[in-house]
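sorry to bug you again but im stuck and you know this stuff better than me. below you get a single protein, a line of residues and a line of whole numbers that encode the local backbone shape. mainly i need to know what kind of three dimensional shape the backbone takes. anything you notice is useful, everything is just below:

***
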Amino acid sequence: MLKMRNKIYKKTFLSILISLLIITSFLWILQISFISASTKMTGKASSQPTNVAIYVAPAVPVLRILSPNSSASYSEGENILLDFIAILIDTIWYNLDNGQNITINSSLYFKTSPGTHTLYLYGNDSNGTVLSDNVTFNVKKEEAGGKPKVKIPQVKFEKEIIEIKLQQGEQKTVSIFIENNKKNKVDVSIINLNSEDLLVNISEANFSLNPGQKKEIFITFNVPLNKTPGIYIEKLLIKAGNLKKEIVFCIEVKLKKSLFDLSLKMPEPAVYHPGDEIPTKITIYNLGKQGKTQINLRYFIKNLENKTILSENQTLLVGVSTTVLKTFKLPKTMKKGYYIFYVKALYDNKTSVTSKTFQIIEPAKIPLLPKPEKIINKLKENQKYIAQAAAVFIAMIILSSIIKSILGGAAWKALFLKRKTTAAVKKYRIQKPLKIKKITKFKKSAKFTKSSKFKKK
């Protein structure tokens, strides 16, 4: 029995050794298959072709205009921002409508006459190569009475918030469109909720619309000269039959004569979930003040009821211009709806402001099963690891086949079928000794019988 057990152990050890060699060979072949497309770099010179091309990607100079924008609308007398990206550029200059060239080294503001204009931006790198970019934009002429008309995209009751920028003492008239998409006539009424007294006139507050009819309504805003710079909310309630919709105007009031201007940029589209992070870029431009000025920057996130959700502040020194990159973590308790990101700069008892609106939506529900496209993409990304796992699996199958062929059926069961093995071993260990004991008793009893018979005789 001991010899049989040693024999099984030797065969098992031999099988495991052979299997390990097979697995190692599989992995080695697999590794070669993955690196066969590339050539090993030894650092030594070779006279043989290697089919490897080596190059160093040069840093490319970049010159691009960010502002003005061809899709934006500018008004007569407005300060227009010239902003750009310049990488590996030594000297930068620009001109307007092929006029006089002006050398610059940072962003700036300029004014121009009404009409269509083209701004040309130039720059040269260290090799003397000249790069250029241009943009064509339009400046609207101010209407009689000093009330420029700003067209806002058509509103069909789905637009909830409209942003307007005004200076102290400025008046603007904006327009919205109301369209009847029903099959019957609709009576419309517009109610001024008038929370800040900046909305001064509605061209027509009560009217009727026939099916398919569209009407343009003019709304006038006026900012008093003594109005404190900041963000103000005005609301209109529009009733059309049984439908009700609230239109919100977010009005940004700026100083009439400001020494600093603020620019705020956020990723578009400005739609987030509660708990998300908002990366922002705030740029402060000096419009003419000499030297450096200490500015207190205050950041706010407010809802449309003017309630502050989040606030921070910092102090910094500003020369010609300063850019601040800052990320804000939204509270997880924020409800869905529209919010205002609002930046205020305080300096020399004056205030400059800028703002952007963004929307909070509910987090999307995670599906129980991912989409088939995502599964396919994941499989493509991890095909190397899948191939390795398949190779190991195949090697394990071969390993089990080799062990089974070498050890035989009984030994295979003894190694891998524990319950059956235990029962078989117990049966083997119990039955064999019983058989020996029976024979021994029989022999002893026979011998005793013979001896007893002999003694009797």
